[in-house]
Amino acid sequence: MSLGPYGRTAAAMITPFDEDGALDLDGAQRLATHLVDRGGCDGIVVSGTTGESPTTSDTEREALLRAVVEAVGDRARITAGVGTSDTRHTVELARAAEKAGAHGLLVVTPYYSRPPQEAVAQHFRTVADAVGLPVMLYDIPARTGTELATNTLLRLAEHPRITAVKDSAYNLLKAARVMAATGLAYFSGCDELNLPLRAIGGAGYVSVVANVAGQQVRAVLDAHDAGDPGEAARRHLALTPLIERMMAAGTPGTATAKALLGALGLPAGPVRAPLLPAGQELTDELLAAYGEVAGGEVAGGR
């Protein structure tokens, strides 16, 4: 089966740092290899929200991407997060990612300046025109302050290189309307919606939880695609406590994923300020929830 430009079961990979907070390229390669060879992931998104892109430099982003591409090769699709609040800067990052070997680009709606919809559309078109890679739009209005309106998505779908959406808008009606009217591939960006979106025609997911429980997250889609919706629902519901602890405990998913990965013996390291690490109490809760999902397993491997 072809993986397409983004894969189907992609992890929103954390960016490993060493104990001094510097980029850990060896750890990134080991983690990427683990996610693909043992974690059920056929895609990896680097330098997204979970990858702490707002606090990594352009040089670090390129080095990280090259390291992951080298480690994984063509065994999975590597999508590079290149979105910023500045169109010119985003174009520079997109071109650098293309040269570094990315298979696709993840471009977030410009944030902070809250541009109107026509400006948002122009931003995405400018980036897509500047490269030869397929572009996944990242719709996450809770972080950017600006939604990707339905009509904007319909217009952007006409661009030959804008081919997908990472949907973190919590709006299944909008997703359904766009999928029904366009060829855009929709990827769930919210783990609790992986199965609902797939059930109405979604292409897959970009998952934070897959950093630590990739096989279990993938098993939900596998059951659905095998024609067993009851088993898919059972597996989805079994993941809910872990999803809730990782994504809805008041601590960002980056911090909870890194806490769990570190406890499981996998590369992670600290988060960068202004994020704070998950405390010991939350880490213990995460481990307990993970143990339920993994059948009691609380030790990882390198």
TrEMBL record:
Reactions that this protein is recorded to catalyse: L-aspartate 4-semialdehyde + pyruvate = (2S,4S)-4-hydroxy-2,3,4,5-tetrahydrodipicolinate + H2O + H(+)
Record-listed E.C. numbers: 4.3.3.7
GO molecular function terms listed in the Swiss-Prot or TrEMBL record: 4-hydroxy-tetrahydrodipicolinate synthase activity
Marked site positions, Part of a proton relay during catalysis: T49, Y112
Active site, renumbered: Y138, K166
UniProt keyword terms in alphabetical order: Amino-acid biosynthesis, Cytoplasm, Diaminopimelate biosynthesis, Lyase, Lysine biosynthesis, Schiff base
Cellular localization per UniProt: Cytoplasm
UniProt function note: Catalyzes the condensation of (S)-aspartate-beta-semialdehyde [(S)-ASA] and pyruvate to 4-hydroxy-tetrahydrodipicolinate (HTPA).
Assembly mode: Homotetramer; dimer of dimers.
Protein name: 4-hydroxy-tetrahydrodipicolinate synthase
Lineage, broadest ranks: Bacteria, Bacillati, Actinomycetota, Actinomycetes, Kitasatosporales
